Amino acid sequence: MRRPSVVVLHGEDRPPDTASIERLADVRYVREPDLARALPGADVVFVWDFLSDALAGAWPDTGGPRWVHTASAGVDRLLFPGIVDGDTVVTNSRGVFEEPIAEYVLGLVLCFAKDLHTTLRLQGERRWRHRETERVGGKRALVVGTGPIGRAIARRLTAVGVRVEGVGRTGRPADPDLGRVHPAERLHDVLGEADYVILAAPLTPATRGMIDAAALARMRPTARLVNVGRGPLVVEDDLVAALRAGRPAGAALDVFESEPLPGTSPLWELPQVIVSPHMSGDAVGWRGELVRLFADNLARHREGRPLRNVVDKRLGYVPSALVSARPDPRG
């Protein structure tokens, strides 16, 4: 059995515990400047630096490797014409991030309801100021994005008494995790019903900028916006203006239009905003889980078995946990 050639695109840090990969393939570790030279002749690309946009610029005009795997749930940086229009198989890291992100969102909802961010700020100022807090049970959440992450979020919130509905590509009256799912074109109609609007949608042409001034104006003045999807789902200038005007009441943002968030951004200074550095899914041990997932897929690739987490390149989502899609049988 021929050993496949794997290119690992990494940033400052290389993936850990790569012996399991190196036993199965000839591996070349590269950073962005060397990526274009490494791709010709490679069978597989493992995009460890999942925040990099370099693959699109480095992709060979004659077609690149037959399989690309990313160490992330989102695949928007991989869905450029060279891959989408070709026969390259794309897989993602579904199964690693869902539950940690759901727990993170639950923590943010509790933080807003119990005003914990204000408590910590006042503690730092040595100020004693009594306040009343809110109940979580009975509140309404609208989860935008009905994929695995959105579903995990819905289950966590439902468990503490939050009434959850969803927004997805197609509507349906009864969903086991999300209750009622509204079609995407009705987003503006249902925003005003939610106490928490939670963004867990992939970034596509249809979702880019979906939370703009018009959408924010539809939200309740007391509502909070939580974004754990992709930064460009939100028009940040519109959000800053809306927050300064008092609608919505707050926002928790783990992703941004530009990352790291520039120090000049007013989001840092708004007291009703919680900023975190794209970490909602990064629980202890997550890097090792990502490598183990890729190593399992690499073994499947070598043996000609179906890969896990194959992405529908035209839609930008994973239709099932295991899809019968076979890369080049030479692998």
TrEMBL record:
Species assigned in the record: Actinomadura miaoliensis
This protein's name: D-2-hydroxyacid dehydrogenase
Assigned keywords, A-Z: NAD, Oxidoreductase
Pfam family for this entry, one: 2-Hacid_dh_C
Residue stretches making up the D-isomer specific 2-hydroxyacid dehydrogenase NAD-binding domain: 106-280
InterPro entries per the UniProt record, alphabetical: D-isomer_DH_CS (IPR029753), D-isomer_DH_NAD-bd (IPR006140), NAD(P)-bd_dom_sf (IPR036291)
Classification via PROSITE patterns: D_2_HYDROXYACID_DH_3
